[in-house]
Design brief:
This protein is mainly beta. Helices cover 0% and strands 44% of the residues.
């Protein structure tokens, strides 16, 4: 396959559709593009509604919608088939949105921002359900556990925090070490968290006990900006 050419600035976020047929990308050029994963061709015209660069994107579990976050402080939800915005922008953050994710049941979105908050949204109405967390540092990344009961995030100073998504209570003590985590993901069974670090290390944590580092690996020569588990 040829390169997927279309953006005219940095690509900041990439995600596969749940069925693996499409790829969605967000860019510093303020657009979102949807590609055919088999041919590499554009599947839709560029999605253009954000007023600043797109920082994060994710497909809904059904594949029908795409959520995006932007430096314009907005979260938007798109129809993945038509490329049309399905509702007004989700407004609540007062600084740039760094990260977005869908809950496993597709009912909620979560977003983290430079305004030091994590917000949970109703994905059907766009209503801001609650502020899950308000801290003193920017939220760099967020992810739902596979059962939707927990949310993990990384805040400024590389601290991993683990929340009950329903009660907003912190489940574990903040996870931290001197390796400076910058990316995080849940295992498919929800039992472990993996973090990629500024200091070139991958750490696997037990998601059920405090400070439960269970494994680690090195190999990269620079920071690890993104991590993921295989489906099994």
């Amino acid at each position: 396959m040829d390169l997927l050419n279309g953006h005219d600035n940095w690509v900041t976020s990439v995600a596969f559709s749940p069925d693996g047929v499409h790829i969605v990308t967000g860019s510093f050029d303020r657009t979102i593009r949807v590609w055919n994963a088999l041919t590499g061709q554009s599947a839709l015209d560029p999605l253009k509604c954000h007023d600043a660069w797109v920082t994060s994107i994710a497909y809904s579990p059904s594949g029908r919608h795409i959520v995006s976050g932007s430096a314009d402080h907005r979260v938007r939800i798109w129809d993945a088939g038509t490329g049309q915005s399905v509702m007004d922008p989700l407004i609540g953050h007062d600084k740039g949105v760094h990260c977005v994710a869908y809950s496993p049941n597709g009912m909620n979105n979560v977003s983290g921002s430079e305004d030091n908050t994590i917000r949970v949204w109703d994905a059907q109405s766009g209503q801001n359900i609650k502020v899950l967390f308000r801290g003193s540092h920017s939220i760099e990344t967020v992810a739902f556990s596979p059962d939707g009961k927990h949310i993990v995030c990384i805040t400024g100073f590389y601290i991993i925090r683990f929340w009950n998504a329903l009660t907003s209570q912190c489940v574990l003590s903040p996870l931290r070490n001197d390796e400076e985590a910058i990316s995080v993901a849940f295992s498919p069974n929800g039992e472990h968290i993996i973090s990629g670090c500024w200091k070139n290390k991958i750490i696997v944590w037990d998601a059920q006990i405090d400070h439960g580092e269970v494994d680690h690996a090195r190999g990269h020569d620079e920071r690890i900006s993104s991590v993921a588990f295989s489906p099994n």
